[in-house]
Specification:
Layout (H helix, E strand, L loop, with lengths): L2 H22 L4 E6 L4 E4 L1 H7 L3 H4 L10 H5 L2 H12 L1 E9 L5 E12 L5 E10 L1 H55 L1 H4 L2 H30 L8 E4 H19 L3 E5 L4 E4 L1 H18 L5 E8 L2 E7 L32 H11 L3 E7 L3 E9 L9
Parallel strand pairs: 7-9
Antiparallel strand pairs: 1-2, 1-5, 3-4, 4-5, 6-8, 9-10, 10-12, 11-12
Helix pairs in contact: 6-8, 9-10, 10-11
This protein binds adenosine-5'-diphosphate and magnesium ion.
Magnesium ion (MG) binds next to helix 10.
EC number: 2.7.13.3
InterPro entries: HATPase_C_sf, HATPase_dom, His_kinase_dom, HisK_dim/P_dom, HisK_dim/P_sf, PAC, PAS, PAS-assoc_C
Organism: Cystobacter ferrugineus
Length: 383
């Protein structure tokens, strides 16, 4: 065999392999257009995707594959011009099969130029992305639904808590009036009626607290948790709260160990700080009955540091961050009641005041919650 014959054969074989490769690709339509947009080659993938056979399509203009809408706005020329200008043009659009049905196509159009730089035609590689699009659309639909559901829940919470608050306030007012009267006749009834009223009072307060925490959810969600800053002695607030919790601590058999610095004074929102302490204490009692509760208030430089420690059920490592999120709980609702809002609200308040709240805990041994609040009001707070 002459040198020439060997080269020619090698060339033919190489060309043959290349043709087989193109023809064999079934997942992509790969075809070429001449410079005017007429189809020059057409592979098996193109046959499969568009439904036209090679005989039918070679020589036809590529516009056969476009939707009437795209043709009306001059998409064909636009794409070819863009590919010719930039060398390459990529798009995702609808295309039409031989039977008239449509699919979403991802199309890369590449301009082919000869050695002198003259435009010879275009190569097009097309893939069917209908499934991908469908999945994306489905995901978007689900996301929209989810957002709507969350919005509906928040709206419901906000409405329900407002509605519940009105009758509660009225019951409380009436109760106070009754209490006054009972105090006057306390001799005759030996205080029994009055004691009962006190108990009802306690229950109403509990209900009011629950309703308030629901109200807080809607406030926080709507970014409307505002702070009324004033000079606050944290030790005083602590004593107040402990006074309110005395009976509950006794009933649960929790001995209180208290240690406080004097004069831990800062600019805070009294009611909001009260709320943090109440939430932590009620958790310590709820999740550590029969065990002592230690409360420690310190001034550390320019911050106040409050520690509430219990010796109850504790919290596993993997739940320790989650419990500060809204509605998150690490216990079964059969054993412990609650909304899972206390810690979330407490963290929102602490962070709103420029501070933070953290937990250290070991399951079975107890939990320690630490609240740190800067003394000097806060940068982002309003008065
Ligand atoms: N002192 C604690 N000991 C053990 N677990 C706690 C304690 N405080 C909070 N938790 C866990 O964190 C979860 C969230 O607490 P919280 O937001 O106060 O909601 P709730 O008390 O209504 O469940 C609780 O459900 C519980 O699993
Ligand atoms: Mg709680």
């Amino acid at each position: 065999m002459t040198e020439y014959a060997r080269v020619a054969r090698a060339l033919r074989e190489s060309e043959e392999r290349f043709r087989m490769l193109l023809a064999g690709v079934k997942d992509f339509a790969i075809f070429m257009l001449d410079a005017g947009g007429r189809v020059e080659t057409w592979n098996q993938g193109a046959e499969r995707l568009y439904g036209h056979s090679m005989e039918e399509l070679v020589g036809q203009h590529v516009s056969t594959l476009y939707t009437p809408e795209d043709l009306r706005v001059g998409r064909v020329d636009e794409e070819l011009a863009a590919a010719s200008h930039h060398g390459r043009y990529e798009s995702e659009c609808e295309r039409v099969r031989k039977d008239g049905s449509r699919f979403w196509a991802h199309v890369v159009t590449t301009a082919l130029r000869d050695e002198e730089g003259r435009l010879r035609g275009f190569a097009k590689v097309t893939r069917d992305v209908t499934e991908k699009r469908k999945a994306e659309e489905e995901k978007e639909r689900l996301l929209r639904e989810l957002k709507a559901a969350v919005a509906a829940r928040d709206e419901f919470l906000s409405m329900a808590s407002h509605e519940l608050k009105t009758p509660l306030t009225s019951v409380k007012l009436n109760l106070r009036a009754l209490e006054h009267r009972a105090e006057k006749t306390v001799e005759q009834t030996e205080g029994a009626g009055s004691r009962r009223l006190v108990r009802i009072h306690g229950q109403i307060d509990r209900l009011a607290k629950l309703v308030n925490s629901l109200l807080d959810v809607s406030r926080i969600t709507a970014n409307r948790l505002d702070f009324h800053l004033e000079e606050v002695d944290l030790g005083e607030v602590l004593q107040d709260v402990l006074g309110q919790f005395k009976e509950e601590l006794d009933r649960a058999g929790c001995a209180l160990h208290l240690r406080t610095d004097v004069g831990v004074v800062g600019r805070w929102d009294r009611l909001r700080v009260d709320q943090i302490i109440s939430n932590l204490l009620s958790n310590a009692i709820k999740y550590g009955p029969g065990k002592p509760v230690e409360v420690d208030l310190q001034r550390l430089g320019k911050s106040a540091r409050l520690v509430v420690r219990d010796h109850g059920i504790g919290i596993s490592e993997r739940d320790q961050e989650r419990i500060f999120d809204r509605f998150e709980r690490a216990v079964s609702s059969q054993h412990y009641g609650g909304f899972g809002l206390g810690l979330w609200i407490s963290r929102q308040i602490a962070e709103g005041l420029g501070g933070r709240i953290t937990v250290h805990s070991q399951p079975g041994l107890g939990s320690t919650f630490v609240v740190e609040l800067p003394l000097s009001g806060l940068p982002g707070g309003e008065e």
